[in-house]
Fold this sequence. Notes:
single chain; alpha+beta; Translation Initiation Factor IF3; 2 domains; 4-stranded mixed beta sheet; 3-stranded antiparallel beta sheet; 7 strands; 42% helix; 22% strand
Amino acid sequence: MAKQRIERLFELAEQEFGEHPERSDRYIHLARRIGMRHNVRISRELKRRMCRHCYSYLVPGGNARVRLRGEYVAVTCLACKKLMRYPYGQKRRYKLKSDAASLDPVIRVGKNGVTETLQIELKGQLKKMRLVKVKFLRSAAVSGAQIEQVAQQLSQATKSELIEIKGRTAVYFKR
């Protein structure tokens, strides 16, 4: 019952925002109080439509500015000038990790280390397959502690996304 009231108050806040933004803020305040009184959580979708700091109802382009930054969505409340960040793209990353688990390493980095030829080969494989696993052999000129740095440099050189590093294996994805 309380959850239905909260959802209804958010619907009313959306309807009233155009003419009476202060009334929509009051509806959000009431929804929060109902949630606290009855120990009912407000759903994630509804929480993202209110400011965490001043508890006003947020409308992108109205009283909120929404920007994509790296791996998160940045929402700025224009009433209190506070920034809220929400991650996005995590499901895609987990999907790529699970897909990479069944792959065999296509490229092996040996005693010559990372050369220009290796970078060209990686670019070609990424173009062909989009998801490539690279194995750094023990004979490579790279120690265990340096693998992460070298993998990042290889990612930048090939303009690909480094999905994960497990031991001496790195997974790259063509954006």
